[in-house]
Amino acid sequence: MFSGIVEEAAKVVSIERNGGNINLTIQCTFTDELKIDQSVAHNGVCLTVVAVNDDKTYVVTAIQETLDRSNLGQLKPGDLINLERSIMMNGRLDGHIVQGHVDTTAKCVDIEEVDGSKYFKFQYTVDKDLVSKGYVTVEKGSVTVNGVSLTVCDSEKDSFRVAIIPYTFTHTNFCNIKVGDVVNIEFDIIGKYLARLMQH
């Protein structure tokens, strides 16, 4: 379980394809603290550490289903990827409950600068079946974009906006997101449970 508070925007060092899977080698400042089998969110996708190397890098594997649902398959060496280790249960939950299970991708369709912050608008394909299961945004609700816990504004049927303050812009890969780029979306788990209960 995660909170959506990104620890570091780290560099993708290399990508190796292995059948339908890819192995991502990541370089970050807390590699020495990682252990094999540990869960780390990568652009919001929970992946398991499978190797820790001596050169401050570690390796995770993404399977084909993960690649189909996320933007991890579009990464290139040198790209920045948002990282968060799983939350410790003795601390504050500063973001919201994030599972690390990306639901879909969305495309950045607009970026607007307003009073020192930036508003990013994202648009996604609406699936009626998924909507009935709570895969939606609500005004002032929570959403996870590339692993970042954010508050929704201007929630529409197939789009929403989020406000990115300068700190978040600088310390996550939002600094590299351009119009046309694809991001990972995880909708709020509470909405999914409520939708499920309504079906019963």
Q: Could you describe the 3D structure shown?
A:
The longest helix has 11 residues, at 189-199. The mean pLDDT is 94. The radius of gyration is 17 Å and the shape is globular. A hairpin with a 2-residue loop joins strand 9 and strand 10 (148-153). The chain has 200 residues and is mostly beta strands. The chain starts with 7 loop residues before the first strand and ends with a helix. It has a 6-stranded antiparallel barrel with strand order 1-2-5-4-3-6. A 6-stranded antiparallel barrel has the order 7-8-11-10-9-12. Helix content is 14%, strand content 41%. It has 4 helices and 12 strands; from the N terminus they run βββββαβββαβββαβα.
Rg (C-alpha, Å):
17 Å
Look at the structure and give the mean pLDDT.
Answer: 94
Order of helical and strand elements: EEEEEHEEEHEEEHEH
Query: Stretches where pLDDT falls below 50 for ≥5 residues?
Result: none
The major beta sheet can be summarized as: 6 strands, antiparallel, barrel
Helix proportion range: 10-25%
The strand line-up of the biggest sheet is 1-2-5-4-3-6
Shape: globular
Strand content: 35-45%
Number of helices: 4
Count every beta strand, where a strand is a DSSP E run of 2 or more residues.
12
- Class computed from helices, strands and strand pairing: mainly beta
Distance between the termini: 26 Å
